[in-house]
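Tokens as discussed.
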């Protein structure tokens, strides 16, 4: 019995020593591996930091100068395109006005050798209608008519006089018509505004005179 106990004890001791021997190398290897997982960053010197910041500033400045140059080229290109558009629009209008000028010139030639003023008047009227049609086709429209309500936004009042028929603040007469180009007022109408019916005293005095 004692030999069996000694043999079992020896076997158990050997097993314990074997397990300890297996665990010990893994623990020893873990320490250096853990140390290599956390590399330390090298601190930059003040000179290196200054040099790096200077390089970034130079790059940003160069990028800014390129953007400014591109924007300046864009403005010049846009300005040239706008000028070409204006010239093209003027050319279209001038081509239409040439026809009006030639009609005027023809009427003047006939008027120099003729005495039929009625025919001359009809010719001038025809030219006016043609001229007005060209302006209208290009978006120009006149406004202001006797009896319209006075609007200080588009009318300039020259005088305000009594009127027997028109109510106050309505157009009694037109000195110059106003004009719109498309939807924009480019010239105000110059008008005479009604002050309403004259007072009875004024009417009686005028009748006696």
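Sequence:
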């Amino acid at each position: 019995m004692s030999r069996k106990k000694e043999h079992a004890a020896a076997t158990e001791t050997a097993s314990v020593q074997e397990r300890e021997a297996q665990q010990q190398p893994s623990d020893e290897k873990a320490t250096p591996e853990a140390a290599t997982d956390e590399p330390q960053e090298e601190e930059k010197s003040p000179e290196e930091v200054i040099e790096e910041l200077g390089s970034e500033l130079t790059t940003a400045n160069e990028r800014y100068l390129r953007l400014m140059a591109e924007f300046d080229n864009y403005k010049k290109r846009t300005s040239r395109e706008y000028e070409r558009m204006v010239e093209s629009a003027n050319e279209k209008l001038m081509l239409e006005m040439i026809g009006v000028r030639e009609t005027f010139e023809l009427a003047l030639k006939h008027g120099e050798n003729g005495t039929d003023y009625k025919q001359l008047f009809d010719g001038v009227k025809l030219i006016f209608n043609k001229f007005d049609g060209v302006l209208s086709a290009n978006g120009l429209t006149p406004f202001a008519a006797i009896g319209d309500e006075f609007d200080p936004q588009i009318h300039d009042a020259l005088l305000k006089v009594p009127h027997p028929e028109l109510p106050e603040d309505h157009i009694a007469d037109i000195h110059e018509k106003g004009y719109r180009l498309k939807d924009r007022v480019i010239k105000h109408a110059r008008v005479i505004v009604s002050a309403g019916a004259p007072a009875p005293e004024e009417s009686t005095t005028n009748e006696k005179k």
